[in-house]
Design a protein that fits this description.
Blueprint lengths: L1 H22 L22 H6 L2 H4 L7 E5 L2 E6 L2 E4 L7 E5 L4 H7 L1 H10 L4 E4 L3 H7 L12
Parallel strand pairs: 1-4
Antiparallel strand pairs: 1-2, 2-3, 4-5
Length: 147
């Protein structure tokens, strides 16, 4: 019986770690390489730019994320980001519009790390941490971008 409890605690800690790092997934296309070509990112092109990111391609088939840039809402699903908000998102992420300049100059990772450091990145989970950790496990590789 004690062995089950210990195993349960270990699994719980792993799932929480995955949620903390994996669900909060934003980062550059390549976490391992620091190549980023500076571009101008605005509300008019952020959805197109994000849709080209490996980050968006890694969202699970049934994953739905609400993403606010300033007060404009977007829906992120596998392989695309579109203007407008989903009805029942798994996760809601809020990023002030002022970070689009950082995103364009230095990449996803830098912009989101800076927003988080400054207390400006909002992340809200809808659902249990364990189920979201499992569902979004492919995004775990972006955990370093939130330092």
């Amino acid at each position: 019986m004690k062995k089950r409890v210990v195993v349960g605690v270990i699994v719980g800690v792993i799932l929480i770690a995955a949620i903390t790092g994996g669900v909060m997934w934003f980062g550059k296309d390549s976490v391992r390489t620091s190549t980023w070509t500076p571009i101008t990112v605005t509300q008019d092109n952020v959805a197109v730019i994000m849709s080209q990111s490996s980050l968006v391609r890694d969202v699970p088939e049934d994953g739905v994320v609400a993403f606010y840039v300033g007060d404009r809402g977007y829906t992120i699903t596998k392989e695309k980001m579109e203007s407008g908000l989903p009805v029942n998102p798994d996760i809601t992420i809020t990023l002030p519009e002022s970070y689009l300049a950082t995103l364009g100059q230095y990449g996803w990772c830098a912009a989101l790390q800076e927003a988080r450091r400054n207390g400006n990145l909002g992340i809200e989970l809808q659902g249990s941490k364990a189920s979201l950790a499992w569902k979004y496990r492919a995004l775990e590789k972006y955990r370093l971008c939130l330092g």
